[in-house]
Amino acid sequence: MSSKLKIGLALSGGGVRGISHLGVLKALNELGIIPSKVSGSSAGAIAGAMYCQGYQPEEVMKIIVETNYFRFMRPAISWKGILKMESLADLFKIYFPHNDFAGLKTPLAVAATDIRKGKVVYFDEGELIKPILASSCIPGMFEPIHLENKYLVDGGVLNNLPVEPLEGICDVVIGVNCNHLPEESNIRNMKNLIERSVIMTMNFNVYSRKSKCDYFIEAPGLGKYGVFDIKKAPDLFQAGYDQAMKVFEENPSMKDLIAKPKKEKTETI
């Protein structure tokens, strides 16, 4: 299958809420909208990498739900974080044995934050696993990843919707955010206050890039789910799927993105 248009897909971070990206990917697959390149931050980097490797969205959700990531983690013996994200490297090698961006079936870019320089760093070639880990490295919780003389943390700190790696390469960009906040009539406690404030900050840098997207998919109310609320995985997956289908129905121009079967060459005698 091929399409005349090169389609870019940018996936936000958001912890377990990133499972909703898998529902979006399932909907796009069913519709015949096939990304030419995917970019992601944090959870979006993980979901995007698994998809670009060739795993089906439902298969990825099953892997995430059945894998207890925290049992692979080790304490970080430093003041820079509580847990050591790099201890997940062996787990990721199961799913990315080649450990190289070039080994993916679909091109991928991931965003991370250089905590020393206060700049976004994009990776789309060379070693794969460390950049994915860096992109998902929540500051304070995980020790920064040391790569290429940089100390890297979560890409969502500065860019939670990395459309920039798609610009100039893709004709159409679809942005997907998994952190929409419902209105809250009652701030119940300090935890609720801090969580809401963090999501608002994440969404600010998402919405600042919304105008760069030709289409924007954002399932309503996902911000109410906790960042580690894995029990809600099926609900999150379904929410992403339903919203992608809704956006498609509301935007007839998206039909132009559907891949067309390649025409077979006819031999002349």
Automatic annotation (TrEMBL):
Domain PNPLA: 9-167
Record has Repeat as a keyword: no
UniProt GO MF annotations: hydrolase activity
Name used for this protein in its record: NTE family protein
Active site: 42 (nucleophile), 154 (proton acceptor)
Keywords: Hydrolase, Lipid degradation, Lipid metabolism
UniProt GO BP: lipid catabolic process
InterPro entries, per the entry: Acyl_Trfase/lysoPLipase, NTE, PNPLA_dom
UniProt motif (GXGXXG) ranges: 13-18
Motif GXSXG in this chain: 40-44
